Structure formats: structure tokens, C-alpha cells
Amino acid sequence: MSYQLRPYQNALIAKIVDAWQRKKRRVIAVAPTGSGKTIVFAKLIEQYLSKNNKQVLVVAHREELILQAQAKIASLTATPIGIIKYGYPPNLNAPIQIASIQSLSRNLEDIEINPRLIIIDEVHHAASDSYRALLAKFPTSYVLGMTATPVRTDGRGFDDQFDELIVGASVAELIKLGYLAPFKIFGAKLIQIKDTKIRYGDYDRQSLIDEIDRSLVYGDLVAAYQKYAPNTKTVVFCVDIAHSQQTAAAYLVAGISAEHIDGEVDYKERKAILDRFRSGETQVLTNCELILEGFDLDDIQTVQIVRPTASLGLYLQMIGRVLRTHLGKPYAMIIDHTPNIALFGLPDHPHQWSLAPTPAPLSRWVQKCPRCDHIFRAQASESKVTRQTRAGIPRQYGMTMCPCCQTRFEFLIERSGLLFNAGIPQRIVTEVADTAIVELGTKNQPKLTAGKPSQIQQTIVRATVGSIHADQLKIITNIIKSSSI
């Protein structure tokens, strides 16, 4: 089957090939959700195999992504395809291998493949140990990582794994060209998040549920749907499984056909649920971070966002579900119950993507580099904790390295996980004498209190916000002022 690439897809492929020719072996290509990332790398594989008798490996982290890649690649080439995943018979001699990263990591030392080109779908997940081990096993292979959201929540970047970042057409450009849908946003009854804790780079789920229970009733969600987007095919993004199930139940009570879906549902049942949604038998589909990467359904008319997030990547994945064009869909509708848009901007807001690290959101368990002030979260695999004693008091120390300036330093860990009296980064311990270590709250350093943000807090806000809008800075500052800090 022949597929005519769009001009911006051809341009992206040309940039990727040019980078490889300039000896940039490992590249990340950024393309918005709905712009045809799978088609781009499928066409690239077709072109590569026409000139090279070498094996190609495509890696993804979910079964839906694996099967989607298989279908797109098979539509472009008659080349045999093998699948490396539990439950599928292997064909390791096939020129194209599509693999689950979980299956690969379990068998990486023994598996008999030798790919010269590796494609990583949704490459923003590639910082994990399993992907690092894969790239270490094939150090001379060309690597292409594809993503719509080259951003992480732990304050680390991609420059230690990849050589170049290639940015394709933006959301605004694709809307202007007619390849993505224009949008309308409806600000519905808002979830309050001022007291919500942040954990591992995003809002703590239980804290979010508590705030939602105080801010909204499930009838508010149905009322917003009936007011702004009645009778439309809608995906609702919820906080956790129970929240998604209860939301679906509220729609059913209102006489609207709805189903819940999550990653714990058996794959065959998930497929059946999605088939009913595709056919229109189910009108509203509620989920907890499942209908994100790799979910292609052009005729989704509305997304309802009931999932506040501190993650730009998650925000873009949610709104990206509705931006695909479809006959009879003049515009995409977004019903937002969260401050997400105020924090991150409109769906077509431009972003300055980079391989370099960006500061982690203010949260527990983050560190501040003593040299460059970069804020990031130490990885469990690199933090070796030892015990030392000062004045007979046991102390725990972690060892980490700043991803921004590569300074290696120790940090002091309290049993509770915090040295400060609220969710501020832990006290940094550099190469100083043990007697020089002072905790906050002693006579040398007063405790942080509520009210006007301290100099430390203001520094953290500046580092966390980076280049986002001034009104977004005001929102974050107000959150800090309202917290127990």
C-alpha cells in the first residue's frame, strides 16, 4: 500500500536523515499528537530497508503501540515483521522486529538480534534503566526517538543519551494548514488545588481526590458536558481508577452511555470497550491515563479534563487526543475543570524544546545542585545511601550527580524524607566537614513560615517556571503562599 507523505512529514524525515549523515547517531524527533509520528517512522523504515540489508528494531512500552506500529509498517512494506513480546510467537530472523521494552529487558543478554536502526516510540520514557541498557547493548546503531512531548518531570534531560533534537511542525502550524483541528475551550467548575501535594513530579493522586471531593460533585461533570458538548463523542480524563469508574457511573445515571477503561482491564476487554466507543455505542469513555499515547481516533469531538497535572507532557497528551481532524468536526472541544491551561498555555502555545535538563516541579524528594542551582530528583539507581554519625545521631546520605552541570554531591536524608518543615528541597550537603552541617530550624537558619515567600522559595519558583507566562508565575506563587510552607 502506498502512502503519500504530507509536506511536513517529508521535511521531518529529511532532517532526521541529515542528522545521521552528520554523524549524529542518536536523535529525537518531536511531532505533535495527531501529526502522524508512526507513519513518519514507518516510512523511514521503508526507505532504510530499501538501501540497507540490516535489521530494524522498533521499541514501545504498551501493547497498543506495538500493534499500531505493526499495522502501519505492514501497510507500507511487504517485509516480514517479528514481534518480541510475551504471548506472541517470535520470528527473530525477520528484518523488522517490534518489541515490548519489558520483554526486551528481561531477555536482553540472550536475545539474538542485531539491529542497525532502533526506533523508540514515545521516547520520553527512554530515561529508564531498561532503555539505557538497550542502547548500551547496541552502541553503534542509529537511533530515532519519536515523541510529542520531549519533557520529563524529574529535572533531567535527554542530552546524556541523544545527540540532537529535531523539532517538526508545531500545533499552531498544523492547525493553520488544516492538518489539526481548531479548538474551543470551555472553563467549567474548577477543581481547587492550592493544598494539593506534589509527589514525583506531579500532584499526589490521593491529594487530588481529596480536593476534587471538596470542589466538585460528579453531577457537575455531567452538567458541564450537557451544557457545552451534549451528544458528542467524549473522553474524560480522571485521576485514578475509582474516580474514573464513579464518573462513568454518574453519566450512566444521567442516561448517557458511558464506560470506564484502565490499564488493569484485560487486553481483549479493553479492545471490546474501545470498539464500542469507536462505533458510537458508547458515547463517553472515562479513563485514568490510558487513552493517551498511541490512541488514534479521529472522530473524538470532546475531551473533558478532570485531572489537574503539574506535568506539561501529560497535559499535552490529554488535549492532543481531540485535535485530530475529522469530517463533520468543525472544531475540537475541551471542557476543562483544572488550572492546567492557565499553567501551561493554550493547546497551540509554542514550546522551546531542548535536550537539556529543565527544572523539576517543586515537590518532595527533589535536590538543588550546589553549583548551578538546578532542581532535580535523584534516581533510585544512582543514590547510594550510607549512614554516618554526628554527635551520636544517625544520619542518612544519598549521592547523586546534577544532570545539568555534572557536579557530584551528597545530600542529607531525614527519616521522614524531608529536612524542611514543608515540601521544599532537602538541605544540600557538599564536600564539607560533618560539623558544618546545619538543619533548617536551628539558631543559624530560621524555619520557613507561611506568608511572603522566602528567598529560597522565590528562587525555586523562578527555577521551576523557566520561560512560562507571567500569569502562570503568579498562579504558582499563590499556590506557595497558600500552602503550609
CATH top level class name of the largest domain? Alpha Beta
* First-last Cα distance: 60 Å
Query: What CATH architecture of the largest domain do you see?
Result: 3-Layer(aba) Sandwich
Q: Domains counted in the coordinates: how many? A: 3
Total strands: the figure is: 21
Described by its quaternary structure, the protein is single chain
Note the beta-strand portion. Answer: 15-25%
- Helical segment count: 14
Placed side by side, the strands forming the largest sheet appear as 3-4-2-5-6-1-7
CATH superfamily of the largest domain: P-loop containing nucleotide triphosphate hydrolases
Per the CATH scheme, the topology name of the largest domain is Rossmann fold
The percentage helix is 25-40%
Mean pLDDT: 81
Structural class: alpha/beta
Q: What's this entry about, in short?
A:
The chain is an alpha/beta fold. It is built from 14 helices and 21 strands.
Helix and strand topology:
Blueprint: H1 7-21, E1 26-30, H2 37-51, E2 55-60, H3 63-76, E3 81-84, E4 96-100, H4 101-107, E5 115-121, H5 129-137, E6 142-147, E7 164-167, H6 171-177, E8 183-187, E9 198-199, E10 202-203, H7 205-215, H8 218-228, E11 234-237, H9 241-253, E12 258-261, H10 267-279, E13 284-287, E14 302-305, H11 312-320, E15 332-336, H12 340-344, E16 366-368, E17 375-377, E18 386-390, E19 393-401, E20 408-413, E21 428-429, H13 455-465, H14 470-482
Parallel strand pairs: 1-6, 1-7, 2-4, 2-5, 3-4, 5-6, 8-15, 11-13, 11-14, 12-13, 14-15
Antiparallel strand pairs: 9-10, 16-17, 18-19, 19-20, 20-21
